[in-house]
Amino acid sequence: MAHVHGWLLLMPAAILLVAFTHYPTVGTLIQSLYSKGSVIRPSRFIGAGNYAAMIEDPVFWKVFANNLWFALGTIPASIALAIAMALIVDRAMPGRALMRMAFFTPTVLPMIAVANIWLFFYTPEIGLIDQILSVFGVQGHNWLGSADTVMGAIVAMTIWKEAGFFMIFYLAGLQTISPELSEAARLEGASRWHYFRRVLFPLLMPTTVFVFINASLNSFKLVDHLFVLTKGGPDNASNLLLYYIYETAFSYFDSNYAAALTMVLLLLLGALALAQFFTLDKRTHFR
Q1: Which of 45, 95, 101, 188 to pair with 58, CA 20 to 30 A apart?
Q2: Is the Cα torsion angle 198, 199, 200, 204 positive or negative in sign?
């Protein structure tokens, strides 16, 4: 009877998990094995045909490379900035609450609103960045219209948006560390950098593992800002995997190929999470 009671308690969560996670995943996998259907030519089973087409798709490889560069640009910078901000607002200082709120404010803004704010920054000639550059006699630049600068512009916006969120976790981690460690380090003559590198950062490794995994997953599922800023352009220079999936399904109406792209993205995220868990987590000691 006790086992039945336990299963009944688990049933609501299990039903939601199956209905909104497992069933859609299996359905997407099955759909990816069929060709694009039309009124004249109905959809038919083609096995791995969509995956074979993906291998020969130059746009897919360009978008995939874009996403890797996007992840490499956002993850380390967001984590480093989050640690720096947490160290600043963890100290006793005038206006500390106001500074914490200022650092965290970008996090609570919707991504569409953030994209519109930064669109004002990046607008050629009349944007804030070009206006500031003109004061120093520097000619304006089309930041979002140039393939050389569009990815860097989106990376900068994403770091500004995410760093405050990660700061909260580091701030919580810092407040669990005993201040006696800092006092002992000062008595031993250790510099602030030595104390951070040898004591503080190793103690923050559990937080870093959590933040690193979340930042990695976020870098492959951010898509809202592209609707406002670039639509993936110019020439797919800012296109990311999730936006390419949306574009394939709802602009080109090829939901079967989009399903294959979705499965690749799911496998990529799963492999990424497992790799990080077995490499970083194994070196982290939770106490």
Answers
A1: 45
A2: positive
Contact by Cβ (8 Å): 81, 218: no
19: amino acid identity, one letter: A
- Domains along the chain with CATH numbers: 57-283 (1.10.3720.10)
Mean pLDDT of the 257-261 span: 94
Angle between helices 255-280 and 23-31 (to 10 degrees): 130
Angle at which helices 255-280 and 205-219 pack, to 10 degrees?
170
The full DSSP string for 256-275 is: HHHHHHHHHHHHHHHHHHHH
Residues, the chain: 287
Largest alpha-carbon pair distance within the chain? 81
Distance CA 3, CA 78 (A): 46
Above 80 in pLDDT, residue 158?
A: yes
Q: What is the pLDDT of residue 258?
A: 94
Q: Which residues pair with 45 in a beta bridge?
A: 34
pLDDT digits (tens, 9 = 90+) for 107-153: 988 888 898 999 989 988 888 898 988 888 888 889 999 899 999 99
